[in-house]
Design brief:
single chain, 292 residues, mainly alpha, Serine Threonine Protein Phosphatase 5, Tetratricopeptide repeat, 15 helices, 78% helix, 0% strand
């Protein structure tokens, strides 16, 4: 894979925060890949992009249980940014979460928001800190399983910061968990308005259309599946070897009544290519899809 392709892949994973849904093996592999990429260097990587990847490296270190390395990355980011930037405050809250307790991290964030951002017009920093606080309360606080309540809170936060793709992305996942597919579709469409080249979001949108089609009448089902196919094709147009995208193309074409043999053949060809050239996890999944 070329350096350009690696850069684009890593930046997309970071922008969508897709790595938070990776399994343990994928997380370790991504952690090692980013370290290799940053050590190798990339002259086309902007300084802001480098900081974004270092931030992702920090969180992957946390996920992998590499506390010492997480501290090292935190200190490197602090040296580059200087002072107590919002990114550093969120990273510090994460260190407090894992090195001390969730309660200590929540108290720290609530204090920061109250003392520094109550009358501050820096909406980007306010949003980032609010998202971190919200995530801690959602996963570890009281009422953590109350999806409807969290949907309301995220929608309230979106009223203040409607151009935050991460909030729209997470809202889509909550709607999906509630099987509110139309709302989930709308949320992902908002992500794509902000990030029109996000191939992962196109595939996720395609998948939501497939779920939405399950309860539709035959006529509506065909129209919805055509929308699903269009988004799946867009995902593989943006990333030619994207496993989920080609899997969706194959599955959707097999569901449609009209002749899609050419697309099915192309999807099978790409899945065979992925099976032969990708990592072990993708090879296994590609092989399974081809065997169905």
């Amino acid at each position: 894979m070329s350096l350009t392709a690696i850069r684009q892949r890593l930046l997309t994973i970071n922008n969508t925060k897709a790595y938070v849904q990776f399994d343990a093996k994928q997380t370790v592999q991504l952690f090692a890949e980013i370290k290799r990429y940053l050590r190798h260097g990339d002259g086309q990587l902007a300084s802001s992009q480098q900081m974004a990847l270092m931030e992702m490296l920090f969180y992957l270190a946390i996920f992998c249980g590499e506390d010492v390395e997480a501290e090292v990355v935190y200190n490197q980011v602090r040296d580059k940014l200087g002072g107590e930037s919002c990114k550093l405050q969120v990273m510090k809250a994460t260190l407090l979460q894992f090195n001390e307790s969730v309660e200590v991290a929540i108290k720290y964030l609530e204090g920061i928001l109250r003392e520094e951002y109550e009358f501050n017009t820096d909406m980007a920093s306010y949003t980032a800190l609010s998202k971190k606080l919200l995530s801690l309360r959602m996963y570890y606080g009281k009422g953590k399983d109350n999806t409807t309540s969290w949907i309301q809170e995220i929608n309230t936060l979106l009223e203040k910061c409607p151009l935050d793709p991460e909030l729209w992305w997470f809202l889509a996942q909550l709607y999906k968990a509630n099987k509110q597919y139309e709302y989930a579709i709308h949320s992902l469409q908002e992500v794509l308005l902000i990030m029109p080249f996000n191939y992962i979001a196109f595939a996720q949108l395609s998948e939501l259309y497939v779920y939405h089609s399950l309860n539709a009448t035959h006529k509506d089902k065909v129209a919805i599946l055509q929308l699903a196919l269009g988004n799946a094709l867009r995902s593989v147009e943006l990333s030619e070897t994207y496993l989920k995208g080609w899997t969706l193309v194959k599955i959707i074409c097999e569901k449609l009544d009209d002749d899609k043999s050419t697309l099915i053949g192309l999807a099978n060809k790409k899945l065979i290519q992925i099976e032969q050239t990708s990592n072990e996890n993708d090879k296994f999944i590609a092989n399974y899809i081809l065997s169905q």
